[in-house]
Amino acid sequence: MTEARQAWELVLEQINEEGGIEHRPLSVHQRTMRLDDADDLTPVADGFANLTDEGYKYIISLVSGSALQPMRDAAMPQGVLTMSITSEDAAADLPEFDGMLLRGILPTDRLIQKQAAALQARGLATMAVVGETALGVDDARLSMMRAAFDACSTCRSSAVTYPAEADLYRYDWQSVGAAVMESKPDVVYLASANVSALLDTIFWVERAGYTGLYYFAHGAFMSSAALAMPGSRVPERFRSYELGLPPNERLDHFLASYEERYGEAFVPEPRLIAFADYLSLLALAMTRVGDADPRAVADAMKELAGPPGERFGTLEYVQAAAAVRAGRDIDFVGLSGPLDFDARGEVADGFIQEYGVTLDGDVAPLP
């Protein structure tokens, strides 16, 4: 998270050089919670609850999965404004936070909807979605993609599943390949996060005669799968769509400023830069309504981030703050993408980038 901290430090300097909030410096307190198991977010939830007990009213944090309910229970009674930098949970699956949860990163279900639309725009009308079931329930990304793809009246998806509880080393993967080909897919979507299962699926789908593209629900596994297939040309057909940073002059300015300050390039990950976006927007909202009432601040953040208005970016804090003090309407645009929040506090849109695998086995953005 070094990149995230260094990014928001650039913004914090601008805020305090401008006079802070009502002539008081804005300070950021960073807490780190160690995760011994990436699937166990209990330490994050516990750390969040500790911060609310200490009186913090504005928290930028990971809010996801099993941590959601305890975070909600800690935040709502004490009127804490929670700003999340994760997107895994579908918007419809989130418990109601009474307008006090803002997620500035495109939720996974909306991300997948954009993926499905991009594929369909290429004329890919039939899709085989391959993934796990757990106790008979389909994997979440498998279900999300099928729902998104089937929203097109002329498109069709089929699910090819295998039980996560099975002995996957001895599983009948040949039948998976046959089932995929039976659906005559234009494209195959791999929903699994298990590299071994991905490799077995690809091997038998290839043996069954498939020659099209594979799209990975979890793009981080593309390179692992490619490296496990030395000498094969199949990885040249690996693809994924992930959140990306929208290219523009503001982003170029930030990247140059970051490299000049720290002597290293910023990792182009929207979730890392979202901390800086939140901090700038939060300070602008406090400039408009003060910092005493988190609910008023949340409402102001939504208003300032949405159109219409003069457009200002994350590193244009001085100009944006002057406009806010003058009572002018602004439309704040984050480096991670537009922060146009809906009534639930979810961003409505975001930039996605298509990735592929190079001949060296590296994952790289496609033009």
Provide an overview of this structure.
By secondary structure, this protein is of the alpha/beta class. It has 2 domains: 2-106 and 247-338, Response regulator (Rossmann fold), CATH 3.40.50.2300; 122-243, Rossmann fold. The chain is 40% helix and 17% strand. The protein contains 12 helices and 14 strands. Strands 4, 5, 6, 7, 8, 9, 13 and 14 form an 8-stranded mixed β-sheet that branches. Strands 1-2-3 form a 3-stranded parallel β-sheet. The protein has a 3-stranded mixed β-sheet with strand order 10-11-12. A hairpin with a 2-residue loop joins strand 11 (330-334) and strand 12. The longest helix is centred in the C-terminal third of the chain and has 20 residues, at 270-289. The protein is elongated. The two termini are 28 Å apart.
Map the helices and strands.
Layout: H1 2-17, H2 42-53, E1 58-61, H3 68-75, E2 81-84, E3 101-103, H4 108-121, E4 126-134, E5 137-138, H5 140-150, E6 156-163, H6 173-182, E7 187-190, H7 195-207, E8 213-216, H8 222-227, E9 238-243, H9 249-262, H10 270-289, H11 294-305, E10 310-313, H12 317-325, E11 330-334, E12 337-338, E13 352-357, E14 363-365
Parallel strand pairs: 1-2, 2-3, 4-6, 4-7, 7-8, 8-9, 10-11
Antiparallel strand pairs: 4-5, 9-13, 11-12, 13-14
Helix pairs in contact: 1-10, 2-3, 4-5, 6-7, 10-11, 10-12
